[in-house]
Amino acid sequence: MAATLPQGEEKARAVRAMFDTIAPRYDLVNRVMTFGLDVRWRRRTVRALDLAPGATVLDLACGTGDLSRDLARAGYRALGADVSLGMLGHNRTGAPLVQADALALPLADASVDGAVSGFALRNFVALPPVFAELARVVQPGGRVALLEVAKPPGFYFQRVVPRIGGLLSDPSAYRYLPRSVAYLPPPAELCSLLRDAGFGSVTRTSLSAGVAQLLVATRTVTTATERIGA
Fold it and tell me: Theoretical Cys-Cys bridge with 55: which of 113, 117, 162, 183, CB 3.0 to 4.6 Å?
């Protein structure tokens, strides 16, 4: 990764290549650098869905499948999508998988009951079209639970995480991690973007003293755009 954070198509290519590279040791590095807290955060994400047993849930940017496995344990039917073939190749779930861009999911309108993502928001090229695509595929009344890092507290993320990542995996990828938080809008704007896309009852919960954040929202019956077009 270059010192300047990439944008647009350059970002899309760089992020895809990065995840292809770090896929073999992605889970290990996550466990080490979060002291296992990422496991707790993911389980809380799945609980926040609060959907009926057997509900079909999209795991967006599913990676190696941690969230998909938690979805299955909770009694949901997971469907994984990721743009990185490397991550899909190391996916350790029995869930159906598809390589797909988050901006153009190969799913029918209102075809899933809910959606989750883990640490993916800052890696998308733009959030409004991703949220709009989630609103398209999640049926009215369905729910999304989106787990993401928050503003890093300082020294640990700036100095220690890159060193751990460099020892266990790809150094440039884990130098990118602390800087990638700059892609995220402020919390109030994140919630507003979800509302604009067609989600209501939006909540944001800070996790582990602000290291991570969880956004939960319900797909409304109609969006403002849908009402205008009606």
Answer: 113
